[in-house]
Specification:
InterPro entries: VWF_A (IPR002035), vWFA_dom_sf (IPR036465). The chain folds into three domains: 15-86; 117-174, no CATH class; 176-365, von Willebrand factor, type A domain (Rossmann fold). The chain contains ten helices and 13 strands. The chain has helices at 15-33, 38-52, 61-70, 88-103, 143-154, 197-214, 249-262, 296-311, 325-338, 350-365, and strands at 74-75, 85-86, 114-120, 124-131, 167-175, 177-184, 219-225, 229-232, 267-274, 280-283, 286-289, 316-320, 341-344. α6 (197-214) links the parallel β6 and β7. α4 crosses α6, α7 packs parallel to α8 and α8 (296-311) packs parallel to α9.
C-alpha cells in the first residue's frame, strides 16, 4: 500500500480579518485613553490612518466601523443617530487587551485559589507523601505506596494491610482572598500634562481580568477616591475619568475597610494606586483641604487608618507614582505603620509590580 500526500487548495488568510484584528488592537487602546468615548477614539484612529496608512484601498476605516457593529463591539444606541457606545463584549476585550499588555499571555486555568504554607486535608494534591492520620479522606490514600509498605513490614507471603502501612498523598490548603483596589482620580493624575490615569486604569482592568481568569474564587472590588470615595463596577473601568478633586485617602481607606468587613474570607488586602499625598478630609458636611505640603491633620488621620488595617490583618500595598522625596517619606511611614508593601514605580513598570505583588501576597500571606 503506497503512502502518499493529499493536496488541497491553499486558502490564504482573509485580508479583511487581519486588518480588522490589527485595527481592533489600536481601537481598544484608544478607547481606553478616551475613557470610553467611541467617537473620539474613531476620530483618533482616522488621524493615525492618515499619518501611518493603517488601511488600504480594499479595507478602510468605514469597513472597520461596520465590522465593529456586526461583531458586537459597538452599537448605535436606541435612536441609531451615530452616537456609538461600547458593548459588554468591548469592555471585556479592553480588559483582556490590558491583561496581555501588562501581564503577558496567561493560560486560563481551572478553579483559581491561593496556595498556603499549610498542608493537610486540602484541595490540591502535592508530590509529598506522609503517614495516614485520622480524618484523612480515603481518596488521599496512595495504594501503591501503602501496599509496598505492607510487604516490607509483614512480608510478601502474608498480605496484611494495617493502618500503620497506609501512606497518603499530601494536599495543600487553598483559600479565598478578598481584594479592594483603590484608584486615585484626583486632579493631580493629569497634572502638568502627564497622563497617569490611563496606566492606572489599565492596571485595574488587567488585575480584574487576572482575578476572573486565574482566581475565580476571589472577590475583587474597585473603588475610586477624590474628595470622596465610591465603589464602581469592573465594567465601568474603561470610562474612568479624573475629576477636579483633592485626594481624600481617608475616605478611600474607610470605604475599603467597610467592603472588606462584609467579606467572610479570612484573607483580605488593599491595593492603592496613587500619585499624590493625602490633601483632603471630610468633616461633617464640609471638606478640609490643604494642597501645600503634608498637612499633619490629614496625614495623622491617614496613618491611624493604616494602623487600624494592620490590627485587622489587612495589608496595604501602595503603588506610588511619584519621585518627590518628601512624598516617598510619607509613603514609607504609612507602609511601616501598616506593615504593608510600597513600590515607587514609573508608569511603564506599574503593571508588572502589581502582578508580582498580587502573586507574592497570595503565596506569602495566604
Amino acid at each position: 500500500m503506497a503512502i502518499g500526500f493529499r493536496f488541497s487548495e491553499y486558502i490564504p488568510p482573509q485580508q479583511e480579518e487581519e486588518n480588522f484584528e490589527s485595527l481592533l488592537k489600536i481601537f481598544l487602546q484608544l478607547v481606553t485613553f478616551t475613557s470610553g468615548d467611541v467617537a473620539e477614539a474613531l476620530s483618533w484612529l482616522n488621524e493615525l490612518d492618515k499619518e501611518y496608512k493603517l488601511t488600504s484601498d480594499k479595507y478602510g476605516i468605514g469597513d472597520f466601523i461596520e465590522d465593529l457593529k456586526k461583531k458586537g463591539f459597538i452599537d448605535d444606541g436606541p435612536q441609531q443617530d451615530g452616537n456609538f457606545s461600547l458593548t459588554a463584549k468591548s469592555e471585556q476585550g479592553i480588559r483582556k487587551s490590558a491583561l496581555e499588555e501588562i501581564f503577558g499571555k496567561l493560560k486560563k486555568g481551572g478553579q483559581g485559589s491561593h496556595a498556603t504554607s499549610h498542608t493537610g486535608i486540602g484541595d490540591e494534591a502535592s508530590t509529598d507523601r506522609r503517614e495516614y492520620r485520622f480524618g484523612d479522606a480515603v481518596e488521599q490514600i496512595s495504594m501503591t505506596d501503602s501496599i509496598r509498605n505492607a510487604q516490607v513490614n509483614h512480608g510478601i507471603g502474608e498480605f496484611r494491610l494495617t493502618e500503620q502501612d497506609l501512606e497518603v498523598n499530601e494536599t495543600e490548603h487553598k483559600s479565598q482572598a478578598s481584594t479592594v483596589l483603590m484608584i486615585d482620580i484626583s486632579h493631580s493624575m493629569i497634572l502638568y500634562g502627564e497622563d497617569r490615569i490611563t496606566p492606572a486604569k489599565k492596571v485595574a482592568m488587567a488585575l480584574a481580568e487576572l482575578v476572573k481568569q486565574k482566581y475565580p474564587k476571589d472577590s475583587l472590588d474597585v473603588i475610586v477616591f477624590g474628595n470622596d470615595a465610591w465603589q464602581i463596577e469592573i465594567k465601568d473601568l474603561p470610562y474612568l475619568q479624573v475629576g477636579p478633586y483633592h485626594t481624600n485617602t481617608v475616605a478611600g481607606l474607610e470605604l475599603a475597610m467597610d467592603i472588606l468587613r462584609k467579606r467572610k474570607t479570612a484573607n483580605k488586602q488593599i491595593f492603592m494606586i496613587t500619585d499624590g499625598k493625602p490633601t483632603c478630609l471630610k468633616e461633617g458636611l464640609h471638606y478640609y483641604k490643604n494642597s501645600f505640603g503634608l498637612d499633619r491633620k490629614v496625614v495623622n488621620k491617614t496613618l491611624n487608618l493604616a494602623a487600624q488595617c494592620r490590627r485587622l490583618k489587612i495589608p496595604i500595598t501602595t503603588f506610588m507614582i511619584a519621585s518627590d522625596p518628601y512624598l516617598q517619606a510619607f509613603v514609607d511611614e504609612f507602609t511601616q505603620v501598616n506593615n504593608g508593601q510600597a513600590y515607587y514605580s514609573s508608569l511603564k513598570g506599574l503593571g508588572h509590580l502589581v502582578f508580582r505583588d498580587y502573586k507574592q501576597n497570595r503565596k506569602k500571606n495566604f
